[in-house]
Design brief:
Blueprint (H helix, E strand, L loop, with lengths): L11 H4 L6 E3 L5 E2 L12 E3 H8 L17 E5 L3 H11 L2 H4 L6 H7 L6 E5 L12 H4 L13 H8 L4 E3 L16 H12 L10 E6 L2 E10 L2 E14 L12 E11 L2 E4 L3 E2 L27 E4 L10 E8 L2 H4 L5 H20 L18 H10 L7 H17 L10 H8 L2
Parallel strand pairs: 1-14, 3-11, 4-5, 4-11, 5-7, 6-7
Antiparallel strand pairs: 2-12, 8-9, 9-10, 13-14
Helix pairs in contact: 2-3, 3-7, 7-8, 12-13
Length: 422
């Protein structure tokens, strides 16, 4: 049932009479802000918006990033999204033409002046400086502070005509033999670096560690465009539990400024509440950005039980994915999480647990979409079916074939609907 904005086009309460259960799996639709001066300067972008722009997401079709503003870009954050932003900025447009990246993004990227990308994080690649040798060998410590994974790092290190600035060896363990496979391989890749030398490269990139951003600065007092980014230098804290999941770093009095003709914040995503959740008895945790739920994904309401650990389930309501567990994990971990929630739905159904309409007469209409469709149509909302999507998909593939690529994405909803109208 595509093209239906639940909570906006149709209230959640309209679903309730016709369904026995609702599972919320709508992810994290907003990115986190840094909350520092200059974040709204021209040339400062959300990494989420930038990725959505070159991937053809309709809401970001008009982003039009100023890639021709200068030669240096700064990316705040060191997760996979940050690495993907760097990869796109550094890749050859001729290579990108073979992918399903949008034509308008290719046109803008062909005008890019970016030659250097700095990917900045507030911690280190691994916490090694302040720990005794006995702890360095502990398997519990074999977690990386930088959040990117091997695949994304390797893609950047193997880009043609792109060099990588060597990392300070003191930030990496001298002996990798005792490390688990993932941190061992990633550490080796970081130490080895790129095969392209700086003297022959057309572009370059670097991973900068132990830096916390403090402000984005305009290029001049009369120009609202970014010109540099200021940071404070961090240092490892010896007084913090080295096995803690929290970052064991603190600010120093030293500062640093990096030239920045472009800047991207990539410090995480957050889920937001769908309008009308409270009408179904659902409380949204704004701080964590999740719908409160138990380990199986059944939604709970702390106000319906004696305490947060024994809160009552809200009948027939479930959560999965990032709106359930927070914006962490890759596709594999999210899949496992979804299986657990799906199991809960099945168990409740087979066990005849009270459903969504338990607080009324105990019986819904059982009509599902059939009971809802008239109200949707009366509001002027055009539902896009699976068969409709396949028609749009076929046109995208046909247009892509003509350009020698997998597909040419249609970047606006209105244009997708035109395809369905012939």
């Amino acid at each position: 049932m595509g093209n239906v904005n639940v909570g906006v086009d149709i209230p959640l309460t309209s679903l309730k009479p016709h369904y026995d259960g609702i599972l919320f799996a709508y992810g994290a639709s907003e990115d986190k802000r840094l909350g520092i001066p200059g974040e709204d300067l021209e040339g400062v972008y959300s990494a989420r918006a930038f990725v959505g722009w070159y991937n053809g997401l309709p809401e970001y079709a008009d982003l039009d990033p100023a890639l021709d503003a200068g030669e240096t870009a700064v990316v705040i954050g060191q997760g996979n999204v940050a690495m993907d932003v760097a990869r796109i900025l550094l890749s050859s447009v001729d290579e990108l033409r073979k992918t399903d990246i949008t034509e308008y993004a290719l046109e803008r990227l062909s005008m890019s002046r970016v030659k250097n990308v700095q990917v900045v994080g507030r911690r280190g690649p691994m916490q090694v400086n302040s720990l005794p040798p006995t702890l360095l060998q502990s398997p519990n410590l074999q977690r990386l502070q930088a959040a990117f994974t091997i695949k994304e790092l390797r893609e950047l290190l193997t880009l043609r005509n792109v060099s990588f600035e060597p990392i300070d060896p003191s930030l990496l363990p001298a002996d990798t033999k005792s490390l688990a496979r993932q941190p061992k391989r990633l550490t080796q890749l970081l130490a080895k670096g790129s095969t392209t030398s700086a003297s022959t490269a057309l572009r370059s990139w670097a991973l900068k560690f132990l830096l916390s951003p403090t402000s984005f600065n305009p290029s001049s007092t009369s120009n609202p465009t970014i010109g540099s980014t200021s940071f404070t230098l961090n240092a490892f804290r010896p007084d913090v539990d080295p096995l803690s999941k929290t970052a064991a770093v603190s600010n120093t009095s030293e500062t640093l400024s990096l030239p920045s003709s472009l800047a991207f914040r990539s410090v995480g995503y957050k889920s937001t509440p769908i309008p009308g959740l409270v009408d179904l008895g659902v409380m949204f945790d704004e701080k964590q950005g999740i719908i409160p739920n138990d380990p199986s994904g059944r939604i709970i309401n702390p106000e319906l039980g004696p305490g947060p650990l024994t809160a009552a389930h809200v009948p027939g309501l479930y959560a999965a994915g990032w709106v359930k567990r927070g914006p962490t994990g890759v596709i594999a971990s999210t899949m496992d999480d979804a299986f657990a929630s799906a199991d809960a739905v099945v168990q409740d159904h087979l066990g005849r647990v009270r459903g969504l309409n338990a607080d009324s007469d105990g019986e819904g209409t059982g009509l599902g979409w059939e009971g809802l469709s008239k109200e949707v149509e009366n509001k002027g909302v055009r539902r896009v079916s699976w068969e409709d999507w396949k028609k749009i998909d076929a046109v995208e593939r046909e247009r892509g074939k003509a350009k020698g690529k997998g597909r040419e994405k249609i970047g606006r909803v209105a244009d997708m609907l035109k395809v369905l109208d012939g």
